[in-house]
Amino acid sequence: MAGRPRTPIGSWGDIHVFTTPTGAKEARARFRDADGKLRRVSARAQSTTAAKRKLLDRLTARTAATAANTGGISPDTTIADLCTYWLDRKDRLRPQSKDDYRQTITGTITPAIGSITVAETTPGRIARFLETVSPGVRARARSILSQAFALAISHDAIPDNPVTKLPKGKLVPRNIVVLTPDDLVDLRHGVQKWQAGLVDDNGAPSKPDGRTAGRGHDLLSFVDILLATGCRPGEVAALRWCDIDFDAETPTVTVSATMVRTKGQGLFRQPFTKASDVRLLALPPYAVQVLAELRSKQLDPGDSTPVFCTAVGTHRDPDTIRNQWRRARQAAGRGDNEKFNWVDFRVMRRTVATLIDELSGDKDAAAQLGHASTAMTRKHYIAARAAQAPDLTDILERFAETRLRKNAS
């Protein structure tokens, strides 16, 4: 015969009320602690109702303490608290990545499903939530929830991960679009006119009054270095003159840092890249010329001076450069929003990767971009091209015999 079901850890059995010799009411219950042992918990008051209420307060507090002793996550933990608990323990995340994750938790996950408890979470609830999230945020939200519920499993708060039970989304082939040489010529010409103040933000002619403030005097030079290196914008913005070796037989640039922005710290030069790598890249002659011209325009270009610097000698903010680029490409399109508005700095990086792949192979493209494998480069950066089949014309010509036989008959 089966015995009575065991009381779950962090919970209690029936509450009984007794009258003490002094006439007070004492409520009692047996509580199962984190070590698995049952212990009596009691509370006294002048009435039965008051004694029960006082005992329930003690039992609830003991449940919270038990959850803390067993790892801080219980079936009653809300999704909002679970995700925050998970993020607070991700010590190896970079500050900017942690900011991005926190924004997704507070701005997307918490308002929609943050009050649902771990025990109440089902694959269906997660699926319905993810359907409401924009594609740009959906993958990150799903990743956060999957990792957070994996942590909940390790704390015995839930038996299965509701996120991993969801079907994986269909992989839609990425249509990678890159710039053609003609695109670049037209784009550069339009940006030059905008930088010189000859056109407004819509590409319409404007009075050449010399007003070019806020248009980024070094914007085209920045783009030239992006195209010459395939670097990320933050990596180019972080370059110092000590990173450029003009005297090498083939001049080089050492890429070992990036500009990042985090809450509380603002913009700063992070002494490692996104991939935590150090890349030594050879510079093409035109890039050497661009850098030499930039250096000649600086009053005192010391080794630690930024290559792209503000009027006060600090590193240029990549966000400011992006804003200037959005205005410049709009002007280059001469009012046509579709012409160049798709050209962001990642397109520059894809253009570099695609050209290197065509002429030298995907391994060299991956090395230039700083990827550990060609899979990442090919999936996200190299534009697809028609596969070249071998020359099989001699074999296929045999079908011509069938035509001859038909004609002969």
Estimate the mean pLDDT confidence: 88
Q: How far apart are the first and last residues' alpha carbons, in Å?
A: 92 Å
Classified in CATH, the superfamily of the largest domain is Intergrase catalytic core
Secondary structure: number of strands: 8
The succession of helices and strands, N to C, reads EEEHHHHHHHHEEEEEHHHHHHHH
Q: Class of the largest domain, according to the CATH hierarchy?
A: Mainly Alpha
Domain Tyr recombinase: 174-394
Family: Belongs to the 'phage' integrase family.
GO molecular function, one term: DNA binding
Organism: Corynebacterium humireducens NBRC 106098 = DSM 45392
Topology (SSEs and partners):
Blueprint lengths: L15 E4 L5 E8 L5 E8 L2 H22 L9 H10 L6 H19 L9 H9 L3 H20 L26 H15 L23 H11 L3 H5 L6 E2 L6 E4 L2 E5 L3 E5 L8 E4 L2 H13 L20 H15 L4 H4 L4 H16 L1 H8 L4 H7 L12 H4 L3 H9 L1
Antiparallel strand pairs: 1-2, 2-3, 4-5, 5-8, 6-7
Helix pairs in contact: 2-3, 2-5, 3-5, 6-10, 7-9, 7-12, 12-13, 13-14
Written description of the protein model:
- One of its GO terms (biological process) is DNA recombination.
- InterPro entries: CB, DNA_brk_join_enz, Integrase-like_cat_sf, Integrase_catalytic, Integrase_recombinase_N, Phage_Integrase.
- It comes from Corynebacterium humireducens NBRC 106098 = DSM 45392.
- Residues 174-394 form the Tyr recombinase domain.
- The chain has 16 helices and 8 strands.
- The protein is mainly alpha-helical and 409 residues long.
- The chain folds into 3 domains: 16-69, no CATH class; 79-154, DNA polymerase, domain 1 (Orthogonal Bundle), CATH 1.10.150; 181-380, hpI Integrase, Chain A (Orthogonal Bundle).
- α2 (79-88) runs antiparallel to α3 (95-113), α6 packs across α10 (318-332) and α7 (219-229) runs antiparallel to α9 (285-297).
- The longest helix has 22 residues, at 48-69.
- The N and C termini lie far apart (92 Å).
- The mean pLDDT is 88.
